[in-house]
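Review form for a predicted model. The reviewer records the input and the model, then writes brief findings.
Reviewer: anonymous (R2)
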Amino acid sequence: MLIFLVPAADALGLPAVSNILNTLVAYIPNVFVAILVLFLGSLAATVVADLVRGTVASANIGNPDILAGIARWAIMGFAALIALEQLKIAPDLISELFGAVVAAVAIAFGLAFGLGGQDAARRWLARGESTVSTAADQIDPQQVKEQARAATQMQEDQMRPRSQTR
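Model under review:
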C-alpha cells in the first residue's frame, strides 16, 4: 500500500509527503532484516543453551541451568544489538556499548588469569632463582680472580708504547 501511495502523492503534487513515504519504503527492508536477525539469534541462543546445558551436565562442573541461561541471554543481547544497529537506532551508542562489553570481557579474563596464575608464576620465579643461585655457587672465586688479572695484564700490555716492547 505504501508503494502505491508514493506515485499518488507525486501525482497530487505533494513532494513532502512523497519524500516521507520514500524514506519509509526504503526503511522497510531494515525492519525485515532486524526481525530476521532476532529470529536467527533466538534460534542460535536456544541451540547453544541446550549444548551448554548438556555439556555442563555431563562434565558435572557447575549448575547447567545457570550457565545455559548466561549463554542464551548473551547471544540474545548480541542479536538485539545487531538488530538495533540494522534499524539505525543510536548506532554510535551501540558501537560504544559493544566495545565496552568486549573490553569488560577482556579485563575479566585478564584478572582471572592473573589471579588464578599467581601460584604458577611464583613457582616459575622460584625455579629460575634457584637455577641462578646454583650457577653462582658453581663459579670458583679463584678462577674469577685469575681471569680478572689476565684481563688487566692484557690491557696493560696494549697500553705500553710499541718502542718498549721491541
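Findings: The chain has seven helices and no strands.
Further findings: The first helix runs from residue 2 to 11.
Recommendation: see findings above.
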